[in-house]
Amino acid sequence: MRLLRFFSLSLLALTVSGTASTVSAQSDNPVAKAREGFETEIIRRFGEELSMPDPVDFDDARPGFSLIDYPSPIGDLQALIKVPEGIDGKRPAIVWVLGGLPAGGATPDLFYSPSNDSDDSAIRYDYEGLVTVYPSFRGSFGNPGRREGFYGEVDDLVAAVEFVRGLEFVDEDHVYLAGLGFGATLALLAAETGVECRGVVCCGADADFFGYDLEIFPFDVEDEEEHRMRSPVEFLDGVKSKTLVLAGSNGLFIDWTQMVEASTNENITFGLIDGADHSDHMATTNELLAAHFAAAFEDPELPVFPENSALQETYAAGVMRRTRAEDLRQLAGALEDGADLSGEHTIEFLGVKQGGEGLEEFTEAARDQGFEVDEAVPQVSEFGDTFYIVMFRGACVPSDLNAFFGLTGKARKLARDVDMSVEAWILR
User: Fold this and answer.
1) Which three-class secondary structure state does DSSP give residue 328?
2) What single string gives the DSSP state of each residue in 272-324?
3) Given CA atoms 251, 252, 256, 257 in this order, what sign does their dihedral have?
4) C-alpha dist (Å) from residue 297 to 86, 90, 161, 286, 369
5) Which of 197, 214, 416, 422 has CA 20 to 30 A from 23's CA?
């Protein structure tokens, strides 16, 4: 079962008729064609107790936020908007769909600076001068209607994009749509309706909903047609705007691969960040995309998205900064405990490897580079999977930071080359 981040839900079972599609009936759009004559059936109801945070209730919120309404096919819905300070004239904008269930909406965390690498706040777009809009959708956050689980919400998101494009302080030719996780899935479904944007970014989108707990959705996932109507892999041909479908190699890689294999649409670019999981690349990804979108506003001839190699390099640089900071904190702790860092020390690394493939290759490569490597010790997880513990060690003078970072960096690269993680190190 896939890992999810949930809002608190109260669940009430019911069976009600849903709404028919309001996606514009474009003759060549596969979503519009598929929805002709289809009416979704909602069998569960939840999430209605959520509410949108109002920035006026938070004295220390970053300035520039407002709670607004936007028109949708089901009535006025709420959105949070952040307008950059001190900037006049029309600006680029991004419609950001938060992940989790229900997708969209907002949390008070948006009012503060992000504190981790799995950043779903889109704050970096504000830093670069983009108007940032966080829409909520039907049936949740105090909105009219009921949740339909990636069906009617698609109509709402399309309406939100059109609303933002029409704002007097937004340049309609520089509006982006993006999201993470379920937010990315909803963004991709909206892109498949042919929604008009300069670019759509989908980070960790689902190809379909197989593999999830069925009771987290309001529709009947076991109903083949209900499921198909909400599966992005079915309608990739409908994407008209330039779209980046991005994933970490340790994230929803299977879904990403499924869509790569199914797509023949030249408007879609598929990017893979090696070594990243579902969301730990978001801080660096958003930082790079925000800077690129701001630059493209000044020079519209720039490509819609940066090269995937730039996303990879930015992520790798972020990982290096983070691990070096962690290593320095551990060294500082050893210094406080009285360790003499000016002499040579042995540093022992703890490696964890899922499965045995690549262990011999790792041992040989590590020994060639001067490490001592113990024999791998097999372990069995609570799920019955076999993994291996590998202890290996090298020597350096920790006070020589170039030598220290060289050793720890080399150890992590050797491990990464065989899909092994370095979980810890100990100064001997």
Assistant:
1) helix
2) EETT--SSTTHHHHHHHHHHHHHHHHH-TTS-SS--HHHHHHHHHHHHHHHHH
3) positive
4) 17, 10, 18, 16, 48
5) 214
Q: How far is 30 from 38, CA to CA, in rounded Å? A: 13
At 85-115, the pLDDT tens digits run: 877 889 999 999 999 989 999 988 888 876 5
Q: Are 66 and 56 in contact (CB under 8 A)?
A: no
Query: Which of 125, 138, 47 has its CA nearest to residue 81?
Result: 125
- pLDDT at res. 27: 60
Task: Report the candidate in 42, 45, 62, 44 with the shortest Cα–Cα distance to residue 53.
Answer: 62
403 backbone dihedrals φ, ψ, rounded to 5°: -70, -40
Tokens 């001190």 belong to which residue?
A: 86
Backbone angles phi, psi at 25, to 5 degrees: -80, 70
DSSP label at residue 101: B
- The predicted-structure confidence for 398-415, as pLDDT tens digits, reads as follows 999 999 999 999 999 999
State the virtual CA torsion across 93, 73, 205, 127 in degrees, nearest 10: 20
Q: Are 225 and 38 in contact (CB under 8 A)?
A: yes
CA angle 97, 102, 106 (to 5 degrees): 50
Q: 317 to each of 128, 256, 275, 368, 420, how far by Cα in Å?
A: 20, 24, 12, 26, 19
The two tokens of residue 259 are 């869509």
- Which amino acid belongs to residue 310? A
Residue 243 has a CB neighbour count (10 Å cut-off) of 28
**Other CB atoms within 10 Å distance of the CB of residue 15:** 10
- Alpha-carbon radius of gyration of the chain: 24
> What are the tens digits of pLDDT across the range 171-214?
999 999 999 999 999 999 999 999 999 999 999 999 998 878 77
For the chain, give the longest Cα–Cα distance.
77
183 and 208 in contact (C-beta within 8 Å)?
Answer: no
| Cis amide leading into 102 (omega within 30) | yes
Contact of 285 with 311, CB cutoff 8 Å = yes
Q: Where are the beta strands (DSSP E) in 185-259?
A: 199-203, 243-248
